[in-house]
TrEMBL record:
Protein name: Lipoprotein
PROSITE patterns: PROKAR_LIPOPROTEIN
Keywords: Signal
Signal sequence extent: 1-23
Native organism taxonomy: Bacteria, Pseudomonadati, Pseudomonadota, Alphaproteobacteria, Rhodobacterales
Length: 153
Protein backbone atom coordinates (compact mmCIF):
# COMPACT_ATOMS: atom_id res chain seq x y z
CA UNK A 1 0.00 0.00 0.00
CA UNK A 2 2.84 2.38 0.83
CA UNK A 3 4.50 1.67 -2.49
CA UNK A 4 1.29 2.43 -4.34
CA UNK A 5 0.91 5.73 -2.50
CA UNK A 6 4.55 6.61 -3.12
CA UNK A 7 4.12 5.87 -6.82
CA UNK A 8 0.98 8.00 -7.04
CA UNK A 9 2.75 10.86 -5.24
CA UNK A 10 5.75 10.62 -7.57
CA UNK A 11 3.53 10.65 -10.65
CA UNK A 12 1.54 13.62 -9.34
CA UNK A 13 4.76 15.52 -8.63
CA UNK A 14 6.16 14.71 -12.09
CA UNK A 15 2.98 16.07 -13.68
CA UNK A 16 3.60 19.39 -11.90
CA UNK A 17 7.07 19.86 -13.38
CA UNK A 18 6.83 22.28 -16.31
CA UNK A 19 8.17 21.10 -19.65
CA UNK A 20 11.61 22.28 -20.74
CA UNK A 21 11.06 25.52 -22.73
CA UNK A 22 14.30 24.98 -24.67
CA UNK A 23 13.27 21.53 -25.92
CA UNK A 24 12.18 21.33 -29.54
CA UNK A 25 8.51 20.42 -29.95
CA UNK A 26 7.74 16.90 -31.03
CA UNK A 27 4.79 15.35 -32.85
CA UNK A 28 1.47 15.94 -31.14
CA UNK A 29 -2.06 14.56 -31.35
CA UNK A 30 -4.53 17.39 -30.71
CA UNK A 31 -7.62 17.13 -28.54
CA UNK A 32 -9.70 16.68 -31.71
CA UNK A 33 -7.42 13.91 -33.02
CA UNK A 34 -5.34 15.70 -35.65
CA UNK A 35 -1.70 14.73 -35.96
CA UNK A 36 0.69 17.70 -35.99
CA UNK A 37 4.33 17.30 -37.04
CA UNK A 38 6.82 20.12 -36.47
CA UNK A 39 9.36 20.84 -39.20
CA UNK A 40 12.78 20.02 -37.69
CA UNK A 41 14.52 22.35 -40.14
CA UNK A 42 12.27 25.36 -39.41
CA UNK A 43 11.29 25.86 -35.74
CA UNK A 44 8.12 27.86 -36.42
CA UNK A 45 6.74 25.63 -39.16
CA UNK A 46 4.45 22.64 -38.65
CA UNK A 47 2.13 20.38 -40.61
CA UNK A 48 -1.45 19.62 -39.52
CA UNK A 49 -2.94 16.44 -40.97
CA UNK A 50 -6.60 16.47 -41.90
CA UNK A 51 -9.01 13.82 -40.71
CA UNK A 52 -11.99 12.72 -42.77
CA UNK A 53 -14.59 15.48 -42.76
CA UNK A 54 -12.33 18.20 -41.35
CA UNK A 55 -13.18 21.73 -42.39
CA UNK A 56 -10.75 24.59 -42.56
CA UNK A 57 -11.92 25.67 -39.12
CA UNK A 58 -10.99 22.24 -37.70
CA UNK A 59 -7.47 22.62 -39.09
CA UNK A 60 -7.17 26.14 -37.65
CA UNK A 61 -8.26 24.72 -34.31
CA UNK A 62 -5.48 22.12 -34.45
CA UNK A 63 -2.90 24.68 -35.60
CA UNK A 64 -3.83 27.04 -32.77
CA UNK A 65 -3.69 24.27 -30.18
CA UNK A 66 -0.20 23.26 -31.34
CA UNK A 67 1.05 26.86 -31.49
CA UNK A 68 -0.17 27.56 -27.96
CA UNK A 69 0.75 24.28 -26.27
CA UNK A 70 3.95 23.24 -28.00
CA UNK A 71 5.41 26.43 -29.49
CA UNK A 72 4.14 28.65 -26.67
CA UNK A 73 3.50 31.56 -29.02
CA UNK A 74 2.49 34.90 -27.52
CA UNK A 75 -1.16 35.89 -27.93
CA UNK A 76 -0.29 38.53 -30.53
CA UNK A 77 1.71 36.27 -32.88
CA UNK A 78 -0.24 35.22 -35.93
CA UNK A 79 -0.36 31.76 -37.50
CA UNK A 80 0.00 31.69 -41.29
CA UNK A 81 -0.88 29.13 -43.95
CA UNK A 82 2.34 28.30 -45.84
CA UNK A 83 1.09 25.43 -47.99
CA UNK A 84 -2.67 25.15 -48.54
CA UNK A 85 -4.59 21.95 -47.96
CA UNK A 86 -3.38 19.24 -50.27
CA UNK A 87 -1.29 16.12 -50.46
CA UNK A 88 1.35 15.88 -47.78
CA UNK A 89 4.99 15.75 -48.81
CA UNK A 90 5.91 14.14 -45.47
CA UNK A 91 3.27 11.40 -45.59
CA UNK A 92 2.19 10.33 -49.07
CA UNK A 93 -1.53 9.64 -49.29
CA UNK A 94 -2.38 11.99 -46.41
CA UNK A 95 -3.88 15.47 -46.74
CA UNK A 96 -2.47 18.32 -44.71
CA UNK A 97 -1.84 22.04 -44.33
CA UNK A 98 1.53 23.54 -43.48
CA UNK A 99 1.44 26.49 -41.05
CA UNK A 100 4.07 28.78 -39.56
CA UNK A 101 4.34 31.30 -36.75
CA UNK A 102 7.54 32.76 -38.28
CA UNK A 103 6.58 33.98 -41.76
CA UNK A 104 9.23 35.14 -44.22
CA UNK A 105 8.90 38.33 -46.27
CA UNK A 106 7.27 36.54 -49.23
CA UNK A 107 4.56 35.02 -47.02
CA UNK A 108 3.90 38.38 -45.35
CA UNK A 109 3.51 39.93 -48.82
CA UNK A 110 1.07 37.16 -49.80
CA UNK A 111 -0.89 37.83 -46.61
CA UNK A 112 -1.10 41.55 -47.39
CA UNK A 113 -2.36 40.80 -50.91
CA UNK A 114 -5.26 38.64 -49.69
CA UNK A 115 -8.69 40.25 -49.56
CA UNK A 116 -10.08 40.83 -46.10
CA UNK A 117 -12.16 37.90 -44.96
CA UNK A 118 -13.37 36.16 -41.87
CA UNK A 119 -13.76 32.67 -43.27
CA UNK A 120 -11.33 30.17 -41.84
CA UNK A 121 -10.24 28.70 -45.13
CA UNK A 122 -6.90 26.98 -45.58
CA UNK A 123 -6.77 27.24 -49.35
CA UNK A 124 -4.47 30.23 -49.78
CA UNK A 125 -0.91 30.89 -48.67
CA UNK A 126 -0.78 33.87 -46.35
CA UNK A 127 -4.20 33.36 -44.72
CA UNK A 128 -3.61 34.07 -41.05
CA UNK A 129 -5.27 34.29 -37.67
CA UNK A 130 -4.30 34.81 -34.07
CA UNK A 131 -4.24 31.60 -32.00
CA UNK A 132 -7.22 32.77 -29.97
CA UNK A 133 -9.27 33.10 -33.17
CA UNK A 134 -8.29 29.61 -34.25
CA UNK A 135 -9.27 28.24 -30.86
CA UNK A 136 -12.78 29.67 -31.23
CA UNK A 137 -13.19 27.16 -34.06
CA UNK A 138 -12.62 24.25 -31.67
CA UNK A 139 -15.93 22.52 -31.30
CA UNK A 140 -16.78 20.81 -28.05
CA UNK A 141 -16.36 17.05 -28.06
CA UNK A 142 -19.96 16.59 -27.00
CA UNK A 143 -22.73 19.01 -27.78
CA UNK A 144 -25.46 19.60 -25.26
CA UNK A 145 -28.71 19.07 -27.07
CA UNK A 146 -31.19 19.49 -24.25
CA UNK A 147 -32.12 22.71 -22.48
CA UNK A 148 -32.40 23.12 -18.72
CA UNK A 149 -35.32 21.29 -17.18
CA UNK A 150 -35.71 18.92 -20.11
CA UNK A 151 -36.34 15.36 -19.04
CA UNK A 152 -36.21 12.21 -21.10
CA UNK A 153 -39.35 10.07 -20.65
Amino acid sequence: MRRALALIAALALAACVPPDPTAAPGPMRTMRGNLVLPDPSDPGRFEVFARAGDSGADLWCAASEFAERELRVPVNRRIYVVTPRGSSAARPGARSVVFTVAPDAALLAAAEALPMGLTMDVGRPGRNFLPVHGRTACRPLFERRFGPGFTVP
